[in-house]
Amino acid sequence: MRIRIKGARLLDPGNIDDNKDIIIKNHLIEAIVDPIFDSKENETRTDIEIIDARGMIVVPGLIDIHVHLREPGQEYKETIETGLMAAAKGGFTAICSMPNTNPVNDNSQVTKFIINCANELGLSKVYPTGAITQGSMGNTLAEIYDMQQAGIVAVTDDGKPLENSNLMRRALEYCKGLDIPVFVHAEELSIADGGSMNEGFFATFWGIKGIPNAAESIMVVRDIALSELTGAPVHFCHISTKESVEAIRQAKKRGVKITCETAPHYFTLTDEDVKDYNTNFKMNPPLRSEEDRQAVIQGLVDGTIDLIASDHAPHSIIEKDVEFDRAAFGIVGLETSLSLSLKLVHDGFLTMAELVNKMAKHPAKIIGIKNDIRPGNIADLTIIDPGHTYEIDPATFKSKSKNTPFAGLKVKGSTFLTMVNGKVVYLK
Amino acid sequence: MRFTKKDILDIESLEPREISMILDTAQGMKEISERPVKKVPTLRGKTIVLFFQEPSTRTKLSFDTAAKRLSADSISISKSSSSIVKGETLIDTAKNLEAMKPDVIVLRHPSSGAPHLIAKRVNSSVINAGDGIHAHPSQALLDMMSVREKKGKIEGLNISIIGDIAHSRVARSDITGFSKMGANVCICAPKTMIPMGIESLGCIVSPNMETCIEGADVIMMLRIQKERQDNILFPTEREYATLFGLNKARLNLAKKDVIVMHPGPMNRGVEISSDVADSDSSMILEQVTNGVALRMALFYLVAGGSRHADSD
Ligand SMILES: [Zn+2]
Ligand SMILES: [Zn+2]
Fold this sequence. Notes:
The complex is a heterodimer. Chain A is an alpha/beta fold.
């Protein structure tokens, strides 16, 4: 049985941008061929399934390298299954799971559990990340090699920073030896000082303790220095401030081996949007000022920011329907990331090819996997419907959690189809 | 005019004409406190819950006295007697309270926005008796009442507020309230206690205390909340008093008829010297008296007054 994706624009930056049909056989891309218009003949064939994708854009599978699945441990927020259904709906053929589950993914047993679960489901793929330190407690290195053998693609203590600079140095050296990337949650806890939103007028207005930009950039600058010291690559998660963007821009100019991501909320919202103690606007790092939002967009435009990842962080009403300062940080993002990011294209900040780089190609490169549309490659594909206009409605989310600040927002562009290993895992 | 607000959550959400109405009503209530029989039947049969999630003696006593003078039944729930210590969420506790059909819930809570959270979920009126570092509307209103009573107006007055602005809900509400009513508000504190963007609430930040109180009609000293500080905001109380304490010499920089206020409890010898606290300029005890009247007015307006009757 073959599948023919017909009539779409095929866009794989650096490889192809043309109106071509793709033929998929089993789990592989079999051929890329000229479009056919004599559809009658083909429609009568029973050995080929036709997917009419006219007006759509076929791109290499989108990859979200920053996703909090809550299994094991907090299945009431999200399971691997619901998280992957959300990923498929969001157009992601693969995601990286963060290790801050319960137990923490700091050993190969947990890694194998996640991978086995995901394999059985046959939805989007999971490339787990493992903890840098045991229990992500920041004291001793975890068995990174053992987890790498089991399938992790990066290490991170995300959710919190690795405060001890000397241990961070050693972690970078150790991981360099294993050729595994380190993802950094950049936050200086003493200056963040238990704050709940961006420090500035709006925090003052609402009487909420603020988190200054420096809480992020101090750690970004530290880890740039440690990357230079060790020669090890560092990837910065969820960059939100103009100071961080500028520090990364300058370091990249000197050739430091760093990469970074931002999340759609940092180029879509600001601290002015945090209103009436709505905890769906509470995440870490917090929504920053308009100046920071502009700097993040500039960073995406000039390539300082390599990629977009959602930091999908499901929480239930138990964590969210409470006092603002007691509410958990984080919002769901898998099912809104593509639509929000497409706005950068509609607004002329990025070309569609640049967006595909930021959501498919660069993420793949950082975790060391292939993601090209070529005959013989695995058929992990996303089809984008660029013109579909709709209102974001959390009730339609596949994710178990609905903690989004984007409810009711009108957006343009969405997932038409997600294909993993040649199999359709989501079709609008 | 009718008072239509269900809740009193902060000063931001009150229109100047609503503030004036509250102050007018409070002035009328004050007379009741001066009678030999300090009780009227206005809120007989109404239930007021005093839900204090943070220790407070003065504010709670003031609300309680106000409720009793209006003949309302008041019930106190403190942190240790509520189910929150047993892990119940604020919303669940509030809904349970709601099931007992109170007319007003007075909430004091350490989290900013807690009264806003429950106001959306309950039909009872919610009065914020202080939330985190956000707002303390009844305190600001009684401050405005005291100033208006003494000066005959608020508009055009120079109000100086000195102390830990960053951690003071009283300061935020006073700045907003006085500037809304047309006063010129000026603040001063160690830079560690000036929150980012505070000017946009409607005040100017003075470089030093002398500049701040020069020509002041009203000086409001804030309590240095020792329990809130991890000792990194200023070195010692001695040095604080040297730079930001209100003493007789500094008081002379203000207008001759200046009034001195303090939301209490005072740290004598730290933010305010004893001779100033006990001087004729001091309105501190008057504030306490007005506090009861002001809170009576709030109860009356949300639970018994024109909100429920088409009297105009
Ligand atoms: Zn993080
Ligand atoms: Zn995260």
